[in-house]
Write a structure and sequence with these properties.
alpha/beta, 3-stranded antiparallel beta sheet, single chain, 10 helices, 12 strands
Length: 352
């Protein structure tokens, strides 16, 4: 039986009870149609399409609107780890980077493999207190991928400011359902294939101005990072873009064709509406779990709910047509705009 989305005007009709957005989001119908058209176009005009920069420019602007910054502050790429590596490569020798314990690898590993940096960890709940004189950067996810806990971003930002440290927030598990203002942080990175419903290969970096004041170096600058990309194909790029586009990677065209449409849909709906919808479903699930004697990881206000000790149920649920995830022994469910109370009740029923 097809399940029709309650919030997005018929853009979704999954054949499963899909509660796994924390792993990968569903493509809206409009995005899937645009991708099919782009593939057909490639048969005659190549895999960069008729307009290589048009969809990526639209996606950049749509993402900027979602996180309340100017498009000139947004760089595009293909993976969060590449954006983070750019930041890691720009830090001075001996700089200390503070991250939460057990943070997602894409946010941590670029600092771990960069020689000359001091990587320090602290429990998420104690991250703000762990900032100290000499800390150069605090990097953390707004929402934890493993279990849905929401970071106290205000406290971390205040502590970083008090000690002269910069902040890097990973919004991959937050943007798309949790209202965010990217301008509150020095840097924001976001993989868009989860809650932002984009194809894989879509990723964003937000920085201050795109100038040297950001503390970044355009380490992987190629022709797309030039002030005029069409005049920078051969030899050194003599003049970089004056804004964050100087940090762009040559993007995967198909990914950004889909992204432009997915991000437009989220702007039409509004993140506040998605937030209210998603968290109401998560709260319904938490109440149902409590009634059945299960205690999820404490993550109030999160659209992600993880239950310790139930990870083994994931395969059984999959066989019944319910898509969730098992992470570190937890059963992780993620509720998004294409889910309904019926989805929650079906999951609870199968857990009895």
């Amino acid at each position: 039986m097809q399940r029709i989305d309650p919030l997005a005007g018929g853009e979704f009709a999954p054949l499963t009870t899909y509660l796994n957005t924390a792993s990968s989001g569903l493509l809206p119908a409009r995005s899937a149609a645009a991708l099919r058209a782009a593939v057909e176009e490639s048969a005659s005009y190549g895999t960069m399409g008729l307009d290589y920069f048009g969809p990526s420019s639209a996606a950049r602007a749509a993402f900027a609107r979602l996180v309340h910054v100017a498009p000139e502050r947004v760089a595009i790429g293909g993976a969060v780890a590449v954006h983070v590596a750019l930041i890691a490569g720009s830090l001075p020798e001996g700089a200390e980077v503070l991250v939460p314990e057990g943070e997602f690898s894409s946010l941590v590993n670029p600092f771990a493999v960069r020689s000359g940096l001091k990587l320090r960890t602290a429990p998420l709940a104690e991250l703000a207190d762990a900032v100290r004189p000499g800390t150069a950067l605090v990097a953390f996810a707004a929402v934890q991928a493993r279990d849905g806990r929401i970071a106290d971003a205000d406290a971390v930002r205040a502590a970083a400011r008090a000690h002269g440290a910069r902040t890097l927030v990973d919004a991959t598990q937050a943007a798309g359902w949790l209202p965010l203002r990217a301008g509150d942080f020095d840097y924001l990175v976001c993989g868009a294939y989860k809650w932002l419903l984009c194809p894989r290969g879509t990723s964003f970096l937000v920085c201050g101005t795109g100038t040297a004041d950001d503390g970044l170096r355009a380490l992987h600058a190629g022709w797309v990072a030039a002030a005029d990309p069409m005049e920078a194909n051969y030899g050194p790029v003599r003049r970089l873009a004056s804004d964050a586009r100087r940090y762009d990677e040559p993007h995967a065209h198909y990914s950004y064709v889909g992204a432009a449409h997915s991000l437009a849909l989220l702007n039409e709906i509004g993140i506040e509406a998605v937030h209210a919808h998603d968290t109401a479903l998560a709260d319904r699930y938490r109440a149902g779990l409590a009634a059945r004697g299960h205690t999820p990881v404490p993550a109030p206000g999160s659209a992600i709910v993880s239950v310790p000790g139930l990870g083994d149920a994931a395969d059984r649920l999959e066989a019944a047509g319910v898509r969730v995830a098992a992470r570190a022994g937890n059963l992780r469910a993620a509720f998004h705009l294409y889910n309904s109370s019926d989805d929650v009740d079906r999951l609870l029923e199968l857990l009895e």
